[in-house]
Amino acid sequence: MEIQILSAISGRLRLRIPRLNHDSNYATQIDGELKVLRFVTGIRINPPASSIAITYNTKTISDTKAKKMILEAIAQPKPVVSTSEELSSPKITSDISRLKSIALTQDKTTPQTEEPLSKKLSEPIIAKPVETRVSEATLEIPQSEKPSSNGIAKEQTPSNEETSLLQESTSIYAGIEGHKNDTITPTLKLSSLALAKRLGISVQALIVRSSQPNFTQWSMTKDPEGIGWVLIKSLNKYYSVSSV
After folding, report:
1. Structure pTM?
2. Which of 78, 107, 150, 231 would staple 210 via disulfide (CB 3.0–4.6 Å)?
3. Sheet of 237-243: strands edge to edge?
């Protein structure tokens, strides 16, 4: 793939990628890949000019490392999969069945002060496609995409369906020994490929590790920012975990 660096100053990188001019799916893919990089504060794609401008927070990452991670994300973007496709996959059926089995066991030992979790899991889930929009033809960073005063960009709000599944999974996760004080962050999520790159391991190694009980603690030791992660199988995504 042809990628030409047009300008590179501290905190801002501008590239020319001919493929942007005729492949809208590719533009959507790299937009999604760049948004999962926490140090990125702004993305502006100009398809007619075959260019993209990225701004990032130099307080949290060096220019050299930021440039390397941005180019890697652009060179190997993952396919965009809509929420409706994820929820209709065979994985969702097996994962919901597993959660129901655990919930039924908990219902027998937990005082019925509220609606049982097993009943909540029996309710149907209606998924809607997630719309992804590519920025229009200007290289100026709009006010809404600029970082806040503390240098952290705003996170994307999860959909109602995703929020519902996260609440159910969080309830199960909190019942596991050693995770009672952990909270899943709904706005910080990564795919298997993106998290594997972040932790510096292969996707196969990540899949094996994520099935082990101490995965969250182990991922903290590998993450460049010391963040712990947990796999929510029903959404096929890894979410960050914080302790309270």
Report:
1. 0.34
2. 231
3. 182-190, 237-243, 228-232
